[in-house]
Specification:
α6 packs antiparallel against α7. The chain has helices spanning 16-33, 51-56, 68-81, 95-98, 119-129, 143-152, 156-164, 182-191, 211-215, 220-231; strands at residues 39-43, 60-65, 86-89, 104-110, 130-141, 194-202, 243-250. The chain is an alpha/beta fold. The two termini are 25 Å apart. The chain is globular and about 50 Å long. A seven-stranded mixed beta sheet has the order 3-2-1-4-5-7-6, with helices on both faces.
């Protein structure tokens, strides 16, 4: 599996690591079930950046999102690509009310835990719709990266605030209500009935490299993607990535 345009656009460097993990998870699940077409739920999937390419690969995809505007954009994107994606309005914590229990092979929970009222409730709902052995793909903002980015913007007090705040925020104006260290994500997944896989860093360099360096240099985007893929598992670089990605398997 490859994301559409995985090595052709600068934006691909921001998602390549996640697509690598999803490709492995889906191949593993397909081998375990004997089904090539899997049932996937994208909680908070918005306009379908992941959902539509997954549907194009032949999987059955349902997007649950609280925004009707995002769901409308999702439907337009799916139509343009000639694929079908089911859309439901709701929050991650509502999955148990919107979907049947034990009905999904994979649930995407990308940039969701930062905003839900209760991350434990959201992940418990995810576990409820997953079949045994199914996986959740969690992508969440990293507080260390936020501190680095605030410092690079000259906001040194805010950078210090992130490092001292248990929720990983830099103040009342911070648009992200909470961020998660790798250990915290692992604790949340364990507490809600998942075995925890390897944690990878996402966007270690992609958010720091000026776009002009990619736009004017042949092969630069492909090289950045390759660098991100190596840095994702580096024991030091992983922990400064803008986002952290982890797969949890339902026990």
């Amino acid at each position: 599996m490859r994301a559409e345009g995985a090595t052709k656009t600068p934006a691909a460097a921001r998602t390549a690591v996640v697509w690598d993990a999803l490709r492995s998870a889906l191949a593993e699940r397909a081998a375990a079930t004997g089904r090539r077409a899997l049932d996937i739920v994208d909680a908070g999937g918005g306009t379908g950046g992941f959902a539509v390419p997954l549907a194009a690969l032949g999987h059955t995809v349902t997007v649950v999102d609280p925004s009707p505007d995002s769901l409308a954009a999702l439907e337009r994107r799916a139509k343009e690509k000639g694929v079908g994606v089911r859309s439901l309005q709701g929050d991650a914590a509502d999955l148990g009310e919107l979907l049947d229990r034990d009905s999904a092979d994979l649930v995407l929970c990308h940039s969701v835990l930062e905003y839900v009222e209760d991350p434990i409730s959201a992940l418990t709902a995810v576990a409820g719709v997953l079949r045994r052995g199914g996986a959740v793909s969690v992508l969440a903002a990293n507080p260390v990266a936020s501190a680095i980015h605030r410092a690079l913007a000259g906001q040194f007090d805010e950078a210090q605030a992130v490092l001292g705040d248990p929720r990983g925020t830099w103040g009342d104006r911070d648009p992200t209500p909470r961020r998660f260290a790798a250990a915290t994500l692992a604790e949340l997944l364990t507490a809600t009935g998942f075995s925890v896989g390897a944690v990878h860093g996402v966007r270690v360099f992609a958010d720091l490299v000026p776009s002009r360096l990619l736009d004017g240099e042949a092969g630069a985007t492909e090289a950045l993607v390759a660098l991100e893929q190596v840095a994702a598992a580096h024991p030091v670089l992983r922990d400064i990535a803008t986002q952290l990605h982890v797969l949890g398997h339902r026990l």
